[in-house]
Amino acid sequence: MPLRFLTAGESHGPALTAILEGIPAGLPLDASIINFELARRQKGYGAGGRMKIEKDTAQILSGVMGGETTGAPIALLVENADHAKWKGKAVEPMTAPRPGHADLTGAVKYGYRDLRPALERSSARETTMRVAAGAVCKHFLAQFGILVGGYVKSIGEVEADFRGSSYRVRIEAAEKNDVRCPDPVAAEKMRAHIEQIIRQKDTLGGVLEIVALNVPPGLGSFAQWDHRLEARLAQAVLSVQAIKGVEIGDAFENTKLPGTQAHDAIKLERSSIQRPTNRAGGTEGGVTNGQPLVIRAAMKPIATTLTPQQTVDLATGQEGLTRYERSDFCPVPRAVPILEAMVAFVLAEALIEKLGGDSLDEMRPRFETLRQATLQDLPMDGTPHVWWP
Ligand code: EPS
Question: Which residue minimizes the CA distance to atom 10 of ligand 1?
Fold first, then answer.
């Protein structure tokens, strides 16, 4: 059974919902596991006014009985506290599309008479449900010792220096400040940069790094284009609002190196195959290689700026300026748990594919017998073959 999820809900509608299908039976689950991640999504310097209104909490409507998943679809619901202000209220039409937002493309595509329906569904408010579904996936992966975490690498021009720190230390250190940057010196500068951008009535983007530790080798496949794990991760990450770029490992840095320096040497330590570096970011040929999985994502500065931008009012047909809609100033720190959720979903799906089974009890022993990268796992004897007689 493939793992899949759908979300539904408008930013200011009564509630947001998700259905997550394919999580095996026997996973202990209660709302606190989801609420922990939802609270992380709400926290981050540079958030807008909406986060003062909401205290996102999930209701589990199905798929869990007696505190454990049953294998049935898991339906999740988060109410929008802000809906109370919109219910029954006449709303002035919005007709001046924001450059970079889904306003204009949505209106052209669906023929809306008002830009609001595009805003309502394209809003990053929807990521609440990705985080909710992803929290279940993260919790599922944790049963196998797989940890998904993330942190901020840069905000605007301010770049962190991670040299010498392990991924695990970075993941833990990131939660200690409200810009989610493990480098405390850079974190202070990032905060100051965000403060400045708020004063300037503008927005800031940045780069995030998402890491998965203890991922077994062999997830994903090169047998078909859409089975390749890098491709699946890239789609999941790029599907997040305002994410416009993605790289696996040191993809862009590697373009500057010759081939002999861009890869991770294969070494032997007590019959175990080891890689002293991780430039590939944990995948080779669309398959995990047992190294930490490293995904980097570029988030643009979001399109809703307090300073008006040049646009055309679609109702009057005149050039004019955008009108401000409440939004974030720098959503980069808040995007960490969102991207973690998407990566966790892809990895949970790939693990379920690899292990098969409908319950955790079926999967656990299979996980224990997964091949590791040791010489004994590889039955090669060097005999010549005629492949195509
Ligand atoms: C968000 C809720 C939204 C926005 C923001 C994120 O709520 P509202 O529109 O009522 O303020 O603040 O959305 C965007 C950044 C966007 O581009 O739509 C949330 O819950 O994260």
Answer: 50
Q: Is the shortest distance between the CB of 123 and ligand 1 below 6 Å?
A: yes
Which numeric CATH code is attached to 4-368?
A: 3.60.150.10
């062999």: which residue's tokens?
218
- Cβ 177 under 6 angstroms from ligand 1: no
**CB 48 less than 6 A from any atom of ligand 1:** yes
Residues 14-33, mean pLDDT to the nearest whole number: 98
Nearest CA to ligand 1 atom 12: 327
**pLDDT grade for 212, boundaries at 50, 70 and 90:** very high
Q: Which amino acid, one-letter code, is at 183?
A: D
CB 295 within 8 A of CB 246: yes
State the chain's mean pLDDT as an integer: 96
Q: Which residue out of 41, 50, 130 has the highest number of ligand 1 atoms within 8 Å of its CB and is therefore the one to mutate?
A: 50
Tokens 């997550």 locate to 20
For 232-272, write each residue's pLDDT tens digit. Answer: 999 999 999 999 999 999 999 999 999 999 999 999 998 88
Distance between CA atoms of residues 118 and 73, nearest Å: 28
Domain residue ranges in the chain: 4-368
